[in-house]
Amino acid sequence: xxxxxxxxxxxxxxxLYAMLALGLVIIYGILRLVNFAYGELIMIGGYxxxxxxxxxxxxxxxxxxLAVAVAMFTSLxxxxxxxxxxxxxxxxxxxxxxxxxxxxxQNGALLIISPRARAVxxxxxxxxxxxxxxxxxxxxxxxxxxTSVVALTLLTLLLRRTVLGxxxxxxxxxxxxxxxxxVPANTVISAAFAISGIMAGIVSIFWIGRSASVTxxxxxxxxxxxxxxxxIGGMRSLTGAVVGGFVYAIIISLLGVLLPPxxxxxxxxxxxxxxxxxxxxxxxxxxxxxxxxxxVG
Amino acid sequence: MNLVDRLKPLNTPxxxxxxxxxxxxxxxxxDISLLTRIITVMFVSLIMVLGLQLYMxxxxxxxxxxxxxxxxxxxxxxxxxMTPTAKELSNPNLYPFLIPLHMPFLPSLLIGALVAAxxxxxxxxxxMRLSDAAxxxxxxxxxxxxxxxxVHWDRVTNGPRTLxxxxxxxxxxxxxxxxxxxxxxxxxxxxxxxxxRLRATRDDAYAAASIGINMVMxxxxxxxxxxxxxxxxxxxxxxxxxxxxPYSFYLTETFVVLAMLVIGGPYSxxxxxxxxxxxxxxxxxxRAIENYVNILQVFPQGFFGFTEVVLAIxxxxxxxxxxxxxxxxxxxxxxxxxxxx
Lengths: 297, 341
Prior knowledge:
Radius of gyration of chain B: 21 Å
Low-confidence stretches of chain A: none
Largest interface: A-B, 52 and 49 residues
Shape of chain B: globular
Strand content of chain B: under 5%
Radius of gyration of chain A: 19 Å
Number of helices of chain B: 15
Strand content of chain A: under 5%
Number of strands of chain B: 0
Number of strands of chain A: 4
Helix content of chain A: over 70%
Mean pLDDT of chain A: 87
Shape of chain A: globular
Structural class of chain A: mainly alpha
Structural class of chain B: mainly alpha
Low-confidence stretches of chain B: none
Oligomer: heterodimer
Largest sheet of chain A: 2 strands, antiparallel
Number of helices of chain A: 12
Order of helices and strands of chain A: HHHHEEEHHHHEHHHH
């Protein structure tokens, strides 16, 4: 039951979820915005791959890079058009805005492309497996792990070694103070949205790699995963997001194996019940950040 | 104090009820079946929006679970109102002990609403301690949980498949009657001691706590009331639509109800009414355009999602330029003369 195959699959799932959660947390940390439109960035990445891989002769690697770029620009664009004007108003206004942006992008895809699923052409490597120590492991899972290690390393370097990274981390700690020290708010927030979009774009490659098709509503499941993972890990800590992603993957894989078959279909409900319990008893998540005011009594 | 003076503070609900009744009478006079359908559904939406206003408007906290409670109300009431034969036909997997239950429409509706309120009371109490993003994520989680349960508990809900064979009990006049009751209930709640205290916690949680207001308790009461109204709305809707699936109670519906409330103005009861009327009118016009374009076959892949796209853009524009909605926090009332000194 718990063998090498299980471990590699869980690791690959965990690294995917870690990237997902990071993209959500990097915005939440600065703006306190739970971005409901985050899942739609994955959908946008998917449709970019569908269009480019299906209708242009571009090599697949270029297609993948362009998908990430389009997701990033969409993220930046939503910030500029929708979130920036409501930023100063209220948290509720911003949350409803993100819900509206999500509906807008989803129905935009419905309107422009089609309500039906579209097949995405993927390179051969997404379908083949390799034998490791007697078990067959899909290349896709290995690629997921490698890509996420590279992405997380680059992100860590950015956050630790560059001025922008230091500004981002400072803004997540205390945004008002950071602004007083002369860091332009718009730059920091745009950077956060860009990173979030890049994460969504990378995730979209592997998420769509699993099903090889894209629909307008494909963004909902990864969004739910990201919610749960960020809550487990701690809404305001980037390390927490990574930890949360892996914990989520471990729990969901174990639930899949351990729950009786009648209850497996309810496992999402269990995950979300778990979220509620965590927010009640440990609203700061597994990894604590400096301030936490989510709970009032 | 004579009767007129006593009723004066209630002039807002009277105006709103007058608007609702006027619409209903006009609809009945015109008597086109499509219009009657639209207006009936609009009154059910109005009940939903008023229910959401009761919690969101007074507590200032966004709740996503509302549509979930609507689903609970719908499925529970249907379990009681359907005849045993219809139940066996529609859902062969139903638990045997649920089959013989059969009641008239009104008690079924009340049971549906009570079950929704009861579930809200049980799961809601601990959630009321959370604010801001945590509150939003937990109510969102609650919506997902309710949806997963509705989709997979096929021994009660017929699973993801459509449940059909529900009798049509909701007429224009039933929905209007419940609308009128709900308008008064929501307005009176807002002006009641509980409502006033809850609004105080919304405006300044710490100041409210310092004068001894139990914020968690106030929010909890509003949450239960809101779920009860959502349950009523769900039951009415179920007995109007007569066949539905769990997917009717999820994010699309949440978006519509939220858009109605936010566009109208979440902080006033009049805002809920105005928002519902405006958004319903806009949606019907947009949907007519969508259908027309589909019939003309301008686009080979079909023309879907136009209504939602426009609605989402309007919602964002409203949030940018007028975040408190059309009504702000004002209520509609007759212009009043200043008292003579």
